[in-house]
Amino acid sequence: MSMFCFQCEQTAGGSGCTKVGVCGKQPETAVLQDLLIFQLKGISLYANELRKSRKSTKVSDRFMLEGLFSTITNVNFDADRIEKLIKKADELKDALKKELGKNIDNKAASWRAANKSQAELIEFAKTVGIKSDVFVKESEDSRSLKEIITYGLKGMAAYADHAYILGFEDDAIYEHIYYALSELTKEKEVNDLVALVLKTGEVNLKTMELLDKANTSKFGNPEPTVVSCGVKKGHAILISGHDLLDLYELLEQTEGKGINIYTHSEMLPAHGYPKLKKFKHLIGNYGTAWQNQIKEFDAFPGAIVMTTNCIQKPKDSYKDRIFTTGLVAWPDVKHIADRKDGKQKDFSEVIKKALELGGFNEDKDGKTTMTGFAHNAVLSVADKIISAVKAGAIKHFFLVGGCDGAKPGRNYYTEFVEKTPKDTIVLTLACGKYRFNTLDIGKIGDFPRILDMGQCNDAFSAIKVAAALAGAFNCTVNELPLSLVLSWYEQKAVCILLTLLHLGIKNIKLGPSLPAFVSPNVLKVLVDNFGIKPITTPAEDLKEILG
Predict the structure, then answer these.
(1) 510 Cβ partners below 8 Å, 6+ apart?
(2) What is d(CA 254, CA 350) in angstroms, rounded to the nearest whole number?
(3) DSSP 345
(4) If you compute the radius of gyration of the chain from its CA atoms, what whole number of angstroms results?
(5) 3-class secondary-structure state, position 260
(6) I want to staple 235 with a disulfide (CB 3.0 to 4.6 A). Which of 106, 224, 259, 384 is the partner?
(7) Contacts of 137 (CB under 8 A, 6+ apart)
């Protein structure tokens, strides 16, 4: 069977995956994810109408976040789990319809998955996907903008889900998701869709702020912290992804059991949080970015936990010692169940496996890196930064961050940072930092020239720091000596970009390639109105930026 997916940067041929996803997603899973989005639009049609009457949509709020998050690149590869979500959506549509007291005349609202086999679902899914007649009849630009909005909503849902798990919600987020998805079922003018793109960026800013509040309320404000990239002799567990609560509960359950815990990829910034770094058996960071996990997981002699994206197809050599949890799923990989009745997740299977395995035979030194330069840490020394700028010690700031990936061309970001002048500061976040975060490029006074602000989930920190500096210098963010050089891979990066557009941030350099889902005309709008440009070479881009 065929599929079509172009939501990530590595999509085949720079145009779309049609046989199997570059990520490893099978066509059955891909088309079922399309159908899940269709179902979520159906839920949204009812929920949006209920909200107009100020009626509760609590029954579907949580499901909406989980459903959207499940379709993000490298999250859920299990067709059976996606099928269950599709059929669960039926129940929610029926509940919302009953509350509303009337039918909604739309295919997404009326269609039901009940009693249909997976094969039947797949056949129907082909009629509602990106290449179906539903979309083809619209203009290329309308389709492009609708996909941009959809991917922005997926990223927003991921951030909102993380906040929800920590007990934080904002009704405005649900309201926008329902409204936006219901609008995507209609034929819309291009200008209206552009407005919806920017509105999605606005609401995502609120979402990122909410997640920042959730993380810092639970685990404290990150502190600048040196992190070891070496290993220690003994049993070991490696935890990857973004979910800090999963890490916290794992640390509590392994305390005193003789097991060392290592972070991987986007979990690295966890070392900066006071309530996480207090655990002495949180040893350090092992490995690099998500796309290197097959080699790194294969070499790791312990149990492995994937808490969120970005999982890849596990090798047989470690398939029996990798565990998924939350919304992450891979067929035939053991899954740690969700929390119940206010209790912690049960990581006993992971612990048992780690104790069965030998772990590391000896200590090995490695490089170090630093993390923990979130907005609270940076702004606490804002006066020193401002003084350094005024004195000419700091001439320019670069935000070099975003998602990493395996596609050629990402060495650009390493070379760019290496070539930055010694009187400049490099802010970074997300897993793109693994291209350069162990480089020693020196200091300016007491400040390391590379400041790791955290996960992609922590993009709010960069925005808050930029806004604070603009306020201090009585100028706009665009007038600051600040340049954004971003790498993207999946949908969380998309929603961050939408937020930057909402804020009016201009002259962003984006790479390693431009999104396949952006039509030529939409790209022209982004170039003309916001100055977005593709990266070229580090030398040329630095020359353009610095003059």
Answers:
(1) 486, 487, 488, 497, 532, 533, 534, 535
(2) 10
(3) P
(4) 23
(5) strand
(6) 259
(7) none
Cα(485)–Cα(480) distance, rounded to whole angstroms? Answer: 15
Q: 266 CB contacts (<8 Å, ≥6 apart)?
A: 240, 241, 242, 290, 308, 430, 431, 455, 456, 457
Q: Torsions phi, psi of 207, nearest 5?
A: -65, -45
* Rounded Cα gap, residues 144 and 150, in angstroms: 10
Q: Closest Cα partner for 264 from 298, 241, 231?
A: 241
- Tens-digit pLDDT profile for residues 486-517: 999 999 999 999 999 999 999 999 999 999 99
Nearest partner of 334 among 356, 319, 317, judged by Cα: 319
Q: 3-state SS string over 436-487?
A: CCCCCCCEECCEECEEECCCHHHHHHHHHHHHHHHHHCCCCHHHCCEEEEEE
Query: What stretches of 254-381 adopt beta strand conformation (E)?
Result: 259-264, 282-285, 303-306, 322-325, 334-336, 368-371
| List of residues 6+ apart from 268 with CB closer than 8 A | 227, 285, 369, 371, 452
Start-to-end CA distance of the chain, whole Å, equals 52
Which ranges in the chain are annotated with CATH 1.20.1270.20? 12-218
Average the pLDDT over 465-478 and give the result: 96
* CATH class, 373-546 region: alpha beta
∠ CA 302-229-419, nearest 5°, is 140
d(CA 42, CA 63) in angstroms, rounded, equals 13
- What's at 316, amino acid-wise? D
Which fold does the domain 225-356 belong to in CATH? Rossmann fold (3.40.50)
409-448 confidence digits (pLDDT tens): 899 999 999 999 999 999 999 999 999 999 999 999 999 9
12-218 fold: Substrate Binding Domain Of Dnak; Chain:A; Domain 2 (1.20.1270)
Residues of each domain in the chain carrying CATH 3.40.50.2030: 225-356, 373-546
